[in-house]
Design goal:
By secondary structure, this protein is an alpha/beta fold. The protein has two domains: 190 residues, 3-Layer(aba) Sandwich (Rossmann fold); 146 residues, Rossmann fold (3-Layer(aba) Sandwich), CATH 3.40.50.2000. It has a seven-stranded parallel sheet with strand order 3-2-1-4-5-6-7. Strands 10-9-8-11-12-13 form a six-stranded parallel sheet, sandwiched between helices. The protein is globular. 48% of the residues are buried.
Length: 357
């Protein structure tokens, strides 16, 4: 960039942007904010309370409403958390408008999954960039259609996600998520298998357990338990012996676990919009073995991973040996050349400059 920019980066209000991360969206937002700040940009990160203060956080006013019994009895009662997020984003977008006399920004980058930063973009004088992190949702689709001015510029985290949003968003450019390869150093490998992520049905940890058990290999799982019933019914009965749960790990501890594994199992039961776990694993030099869903095939090459049809656990089991034999150096090189946060930040800076010129 020719000059430092003042950037308003809008994050998800659901979870704090801090380690240990609740999921890939929070990890990505942290990495983007840190990378932009390291390049001299003045970043204001509008994020959930409790987010990392080192990122220049402006906490979103997320306050759960105190509702009367009469309001709760209403047949149209909305989830209180959704109400809190709505009001928080409404206040933010009003504050970003000139009528409130707020701090002027050169660019507003919406990295949230909420509809209001899109619907209210015409009220903001700065260019608004929205990154599409998910398949189409009713709220986001309706917000895009409500913006008759076409004032939002869209990016997508993968070619798969860009295709999913067509024809409604016909010109979304692909800017793939990146990982800081310094924070995910190459490890020695040689250990068992690893699976990590949010423990929910759509991430398929139970299928990873089934494949590891069929291959007679140890498997360590890590990540936040979001669906406690699923964890209790589908994961806990298998713990002990070769299968263990390491907890919700952060930073260096998680990177060390992934770097010590011989392969990472990635078992999505939905079409992954990107798959940050894949990029992180490759940075650690650890090959990936998983289901061919969503954007995973854009990241992996035959040199660094093996993909099989979903939900064929037998095929996944058979592919593990081949994945474990892959070159760890090739995995690391793929991460450095294709998945680095530096490449991602370059693309976003180029987009900002294009919009401002």
């Amino acid at each position: 960039m020719s000059r430092p920019l003042r950037i308003a980066l809008i994050a998800s209000a659901r979870y704090p942007i801090r380690e240990p991360f609740a999921g890939g969206l929070e990890a990505h937002t942290w990495a983007l904010a840190a990378a932009l700040r390291s390049r001299g940009h003045r970043v204001a990160l509008f994020a959930a309370p409790g987010s990392d203060p080192a990122l220049g956080v402006r906490e979103l006013p997320v306050h759960t409403p105190r509702l009367s019994d009469a309001a709760r009895a209403d047949l149209s009662m909305t989830d209180p958390l959704a109400l809190a997020e709505h009001h928080a984003y409404l206040r933010l977008m009003l504050d970003l408008s000139p009528s409130r006399g707020g701090v002027p920004y050169d660019v507003v980058h919406n990295n949230s999954l909420h509809y209001l930063p899109i619907a209210m973009a015409p009220a903001v004088p700065a260019p608004v960039v929205t990154t599409l992190h998910t398949p189409p949702t009713p709220w986001l689709e309706s917000a895009i259609q409500a913006d008759a001015t076409g004032s939002v510029v869209f990016t997508a985290v993968s070619a798969h996600t860009a295709r999913a949003w067509r024809p409604l968003v016909s010109a979304a450019r692909v800017v793939r998520n990146g990982v800081d390869v310094r924070r995910w150093p190459a490890g020695p490998g040689g250990g068992g298998l690893v699976w990590y992520g949010r423990i929910v049905p759509e991430k398929g940890p139970a299928l990873a357990i089934a494949a590891a058990e069929a291959a007679a290999l140890p498997l360590t799982l890590a990540g936040p338990v979001v669906d406690r019933a699923y964890f209790r019914e589908r994961v806990v009965p298998h713990l002990g012996g070769r299968i263990r749960y390491a907890g919700h790990l952060a930073g260096a501890e998680l990177a060390a676990l992934v770097g010590s594994a011989s392969a990472t199992l990635v078992t999505p039961c939905w079409d992954e919009p990107y798959g940050l776990v894949v990029a992180e694993s490759l940075a650690c030099g650890t090959p990936v073995c998983g289901f061919d869903r969503g954007a995973l095939g854009e990241i992996l090459t035959p040199d660094c991973g093996r993909l099989v049809p979903f939900p064929d656990v037998q095929a996944l089991t058979a592919a593990i040996a081949g994945a474990r034999a892959l070159s760890r150096r090739a995995c690391r090189e793929r991460a450095e050349s294709f998945c680095s946060v530096g490449h991602m930040t370059d693309r976003y800076e180029a987009l900002y400059e294009e919009l401002l010129s």
